[in-house]
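Box 3.1 — From sequence to structure: peptidylprolyl isomerase
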Amino acid sequence: MGTDKRQRQKANRERARQERIRKQKLNKVRSRGLRFGLGIPVVVLALFLVANLVTGDDESTTTDTAPATTAPVELTPCPAVEGESERVNSFAGPMENCIDPAKSYTATFDTTEGEIVVELDTENTPGTVNNFVSLARYRYYDTTTIFRTDPSIDIIQGGGFSASDSVGYTIADEGSGFEYSEGDLVMARSQGPNSGGAQFFFVTGPNGSLLNSQGTYVTFGKITQGLDVVKAIQALHTATDDGLGGKPSRTVTVNSVTITEK
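Predicted structure (token representation):
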């Protein structure tokens, strides 16, 4: 009997040991499962957010945040087609669309050295032409001067009284890669893009092609009459030390710029 009792006790201890081992293993598995259980939802949530950022459908997305807005650009209304009665030199902003794309436009520059007639390129540069035509009709160019001459690149520049004059707004560049030739009417601007406003220059000879490497000044017209006038103004060149090449030896005034619409 004593032997049987000892064997049963031994067997009970073994079963108890095995049960402890089993519970320990179970606890390890549960513990491991809880740790993964906390990690998996985080990973799933992250994947869900990334998926929605990459493939989210705009039509099903709602938000309580108002979309970012920018202040609208104030436009200057169109001037009278026949031109204003007095010169206007202050503007609210860029011009409204004032030209008819189905029509052609020429600009006649009445200067103290003679008359220059330019056919404006509404097909390739409608925005630039619209700006120029509107300014001319506002008589902005009346009494301004051709204040710069530079035979090294064959240009004469006007559209104000000095290179620092500003119309108070800028317009977008229309194209790039321009090549310049004698008789071109070109929008002047600073080195930065989209910085043109009112100033312009005429190309008076072959050295204008030296600007081809830049090609960023928008050509918006071609002289049809008066090429001899712009060459005569260039011939008045006198050197200056202001970095602009020079200026005419006498004042060259643009009395008016008249727009003809057909």
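Summary of the box: The first strand starts at residue 105 and ends at 111.
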